[in-house]
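Thread: Newbie trying to understand structure tokens

Hi all, I'm a second-year student working on a class project, and my supervisor (Dr. K.) asked me to get a predicted structure for one chain before our next meeting. I've only ever worked with sequences, so writing a 3D structure as a token string is new to me. If someone could post the tokens and maybe explain what I'm looking at, I'd be very grateful. Here's the chain:
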Amino acid sequence: MLSPEKAHDILDGITHDKAFHCHKTVDYSNSNEGQVTTESKLCFGAVLFLENTVRGGCRSNVMFRFGLKRQEFQLFDLRHDESIYESFDEFIEGVSY
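---
Reply by user tm_fold:
Sure, no problem. This is what the structure looks like when written as tokens:
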């Protein structure tokens, strides 16, 4: 579970043009915060969350638009059957302890 502060930081980042990387591709060997590396990939969960909650979807975030342009992912490849939070409030409640 995330702290409420970290959950708010995530929402602030993805709604203000910051990249958000998949936790499975971030290096956590030296800290709990993790280090983004050249191997790190954008978080598809965050992409789908933006698609569900924000006008313009993931294209509302500059870093995700760059990811689309670099063909790091394509929207039609994303699994829309994933269980994704439908609102900011639902996300905060669901991930916070």
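A couple of things are worth pointing out once you decode it. The chain has a mean pLDDT of 88. The chain is about 40% helix and 0% strand. Feel free to ask follow-ups in this thread.
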